[in-house]
Every structure is written in C-alpha cells, then in structure tokens.
Design a protein that fits this description.
GMP Synthetase, Chain A, domain 3, about 25% strand, 5-stranded parallel β-sheet, Rossmann fold, about 550 residues, 3 domains, 9-stranded mixed β-sheet
C-alpha cells in the first residue's frame, strides 16, 4: 500500500498533516525528524514530508534529518521549518525575521510558463482549486494567483540553496513557496495542514497524488482491523482494565476492546471524582451496560479528590493531583479486584492529548498543558513498562467519532461534546470546593440542555461553562447581591487543534444567560468567551 512518511520535528500540527492525508485515503507513518532511517522505514514510501518545529535550524534544538532522504529520489515537501531545514542542508542560509509572521498572511504564487512537476498537479487557470493530477499544456507567459495562507514562524530564507527557486512570496515580502529545478523537492513557508489555510488541502493533495502518484487505498475500516489485530496479539488472554469516563474517547476505546477481546476479559473502571457533569454516573452506567460490559466497577471518590485539591489553585498542579490520584485509586482497587500483575491498563488517549502534553513523536515537542492520562508519573511508569494500551492515540476527535459509528455505538454517545479528564477541576478557576462544583454542574447542565432544545448542540464542537474566581455586584429585586461570574464557551472545530468561536444568535445567548442567573441563584453575571484557538486553548486551564 502506498504511503507518505512524515518526519516530525516537534510541530504542534504534525499530526494534522497525517490526518489530512488519511482523509485523502493514503496511509501515513510519522517518525522522529532526526531518526536514522532504515529500509523498512522507507518501504512503500512514495513521498516524505518534513514538518514544522518550534526550534530554529541554526539552534542546538534544531533536529537534523537523515541525509539519506536527499539521495533516494523520493519527492520531498518541507513545511515551515521543514523548508528551512532543506534549504540549509543544501547550502542555503536561514536568518531571523525582523518581525514574526503569524496567522493569516496573503501569498502570491507565480506559475512558470513551462511545465513543472508541482504545478502540473493543478489546472493553472484555477491554481490551488481543483486537483486533476495531469500535465497541463505550457503557457507562453507566467501567471500569478494569490490566496490567504496560515503562517507561524520567526525565521526566513535569506539565500536559496543551489537549484532552488522562489515561486511564491508573502505579502510581507519573504519567500513562501520554493521549488527545486531538477529534484522533486518542494517547500512551503506556511502550513497547508491548518484549517485556516485557504487551498491547504488542495496543496497537500497535489503533492500526494500529483507528485507522488499515490493511490487512495487506506480506510478507517482498515485501521480498525489493524488495531484489533495488534490488540489481540499484544494482550493475548491477559485481563485489560480501562479507566473510563463515559465521554466519547473512553467509550469508543471501550467499545473497541469489547468487540476485540472476550467481554469478561475487559474490566471497565469508572471513578466518580465529584468533578463530573450532572447525572454523569447514571448516564455512564446505562451506556456501558448497553455496550455489553460484564465487568463494570463504579467507584465513588468525591471526598478523596476534594480533600487532595483543597487550597490548590495552580492549573498544572490540579491536573497532576487529579491524574496521580486517578492512578493511585485504580492501583488500590486493582488489588481488591484480584487482577494479576500481567493486566494491561487501557486509556482513551487521543493524539491531541499527547501533542499538548509534549509527547509528540520526536523529542522536540513542547508542553502546552498536562493531561492526566499522559503526564502523570504513575501513568508514565506503566507506559515504560509496556503495560499501557491506547488504541486511539493516533486519532483525532472527529476520527474517533467515525470509528464509533463503525463500531455501531449509539449516536447520543458519538455526538457527545468532549469532556476533559480532570472534569470540572479545570473549569473552576482557582481553588475547587464542593459548593463551586455544585454551582457549575447545575449551570452547565442548563446551558447544554438549552443548546439541545434550541437545535444548536450539533452545530457546536464543544460547549461548557467556566466558573471564574471573582464575584460581581448585582441586584435581585430590591436587594444587593454578590454572585459568582460564569463564562460560557462554545467553539467549532474539525479536530481540536484549531478552533473558532461559535457565532451565537444573540437572542439565544441572552435567553440562556437569563435562564442561568434566574435558576442558579449563586451566579450573578454571565460572560461569553470569544477567543479562538490559537492563541487560546479550548479549555481555560
């Protein structure tokens, strides 16, 4: 099966490149950018993509790829750092920009009058619009086309390596598209994988199909079969314990385990931390029993978690405490279950969790925020021991939903908005108390129910309330009040790596706000968060 190899230099969007290509039906492998490549690594590889990076090519942190990539005759596509890396490796120079290029930047591309391998993948009259993957008759004159790219870099090419030519330039006056005249090497100073990049998917498809001539042979059905085979081989007859929250990720992971292994082999442990949504435990119990779970263990641990979190305000500290206590309780309860030491611990970890926790493919990924199922020292100890199973760790949220549909899970579960592992613990800013949990739980339930009643829920990728650590003066009747402030969050997204604010109809937003303040007396003021990702993250902590 044809494949594209992606070399990861630590970019937060490396997996987006892989996901875009998988959406096109072509298999991808992602390896560390500085890995010494073997023949097995390059088997069936029709093209190689060099990812972006938070590092600079002239800094000690800038990983260097195996020089073998330049001698195999395989097409190369360098993205951001990847382009700079190619240019420097071939004798060019890269220097710091006077001002960082970030966000939407217009790029103008000059189309050469003679056929070029990259441009031959596009119809020149509608460049970056429709993929036709065929040779286009030569034109007597070069033409240009402009589009809005998505950039994030602080360096630029100041001298092109021999053989490279500039074919596209940013509106700020720096190289944006660079191609080699005799080798199948191409470079983009912007990120076509980003949702915000116009024509991004067409550019990727032009490389995959027009340049690399890949055949679309990879499907989610094949992914399921591969994962199920791998699970069966790794686990054998050993018991598997899945820490399940009832959200989409862990439920789909549970469904995959139950449909792959013997049902009495799979133990599902749900820990009620006291940081859950309203009626969450009952909802989880019902949905898991309908999945056919025979060994469901529900633990009520609210007091333990609230005691451990008493007086803690730092968000990273809260995540670590919650994550460590999750595993501590799990290990304690495993003893009560009588599971052998050979049991496997399963988690519904997504690749976005790994990326944001600094656990990218290579060693250059940066920490954005910790996830309790990734960064906990106890989880990492189990990971090193080879006793962790994460069947979703190369998937994004929308892919997990598609996987859930193929596993015939209930639509109400598949369509459910994401819920963080630490629960309300990262939606209560500052110290967590039982009273604050009750206030936020009730307000959040009203918010979500109103979205469903108004037909807005399925238009939104994720919606939730955040209880702020401030009180605001208000009036109720003739009395002065001093209530908590609630921030509402609603975003649209394809994968969670980037997000836009949901453009609420103002009538709905006003009515929901009024309903919350009238019903939850402790809340005196409601605000709406209008921050996109980036620069903000989806959750507040």
């Amino acid at each position: 099966m044809d494949s594209i190899l992606i070399l990861d230099f630590g970019s937060q969007t490396t997996q987006l490149i892989g996901r875009r290509i998988r959406d096109l039906g072509v298999y991808t492998e992602i390896l560390p950018g500085d890995r010494k490549l073997t023949d097995a690594d390059l088997a069936n590889v029709r093209g190689i993509i060099l990812s972006g990076s938070p590092a600079s090519v002239y800094s000690p942190d800038g990983a260097v790829p195996d020089r073998r990539i330049y001698t195999q005759g395989v097409p190369l596509l360098g993205i951001c750092y990847g382009l700079q890396r190619m240019n420097k490796d071939q004798g060019g120079t890269v220097e710091a920009l006077p001002q960082r290029e970030y966000g939407g930047v217009e790029v103008t591309v000059s189309i050469p009058p003679t056929n070029h391998l990259f441009f031959a993948a596009f119809d020149r009259s509608i460049l970056l619009s429709d993929i036709i993957a065929r040779q286009v008759p030569a034109k007597s004159e070069a033409s240009t086309v402009s589009f809005m790219s998505w950039m994030s870099h602080g360096d630029t090419l100041t001298h092109l390596a021999p053989g490279f030519r500039e074919y596209g330039r940013s509106s700020t006056g720096f190289p944006a598209v660079v191609l080699h005249e005799s080798q199948p090497w191409f470079g983009l100073q912007f990120h076509p994988e980003a949702t915000h990049c116009e024509r991004g998917i067409e550019i990727i498809a032009a490389f995959v199909f027009g340049v690399c001539a890949c055949k679309p042979e990879w499907t989610m059905e094949q992914y399921i079969e591969t994962v199920r085979t791998s699970l069966a081989e790794k686990v054998g007859n050993s018991p598997v314990l899945l820490l399940i929250s009832g959200g989409v990720d862990s439920t789909v992971a549970g469904g995959l385990l139950l449909k792959t292994l013997q049902s009495d082999q799979v133990h599902l442990m749900y820990i009620d931390t006291g940081l859950m949504r309203k009626n969450e435990t009952l909802t989880v119990k019902d949905s898991l029993e309908r999945l056919g779970a025979q060994r469901l263990h529900i633990l009520h641990c609210e007091d333990e978690f609230l005691e451990a979190l008493k007086g803690v305000e730092d968000p990273e500290a809260k995540r670590k405490i919650i994550g460590d206590l999750f595993i501590t309780i799990q290990e304690r309860e495993v003893c009560n279950l009588g599971l052998p030491e050979s049991y496997f611990l399963a988690q519904g970890t997504l690749y976005t969790d790994l990326i944001e926790s600094g656990k990218g493919i290579g060693k250059k990924a940066h920490l954005i925020k910790s996830h309790h199922n990734v960064g906990s020292p106890l989880v990492e100890a189990k990971r090193k021991a080879g006793r962790i199973i994460e069947p979703l760790d190369r998937l994004y949220k929308d892919e997990v939903r598609r996987l859930g549909q193929l596993l015939s899970l209930e639509e109400s579960v598949i369509r459910r908005h994401p819920f963080p592992g630490p629960g309300l613990g990262v939606r209560i800013i500052g110290e967590i108390t039982k009273e604050k949990c009750a206030i936020l739980r009730e307000a959040d339930a009203i918010y979500i129910e109103e979205l469903k009643r108004r037909g807005l829920y399925d238009e939104i990728w994720q919606a939730f309330g955040v209880l702020l650590p401030i009180r605001s003066v208000g009036v109720a009747g003739d009395l002065r009040t001093y209530g908590w402030v609630l921030a509402l969050r609603a975003i649209t997204s394809a994968d969670g790596m980037t997000a836009e604010v949901y453009p609420f109809p103002i009538k709905d937003l006003l009515e929901i706000s009024t309903l919350i303040t009238n019903t939850v007396k402790e809340i005196g003021r409601v605000t709406y968060d209008i921050s996109s990702k980036p620069p903000a993250t989806i959750e507040w902590e």
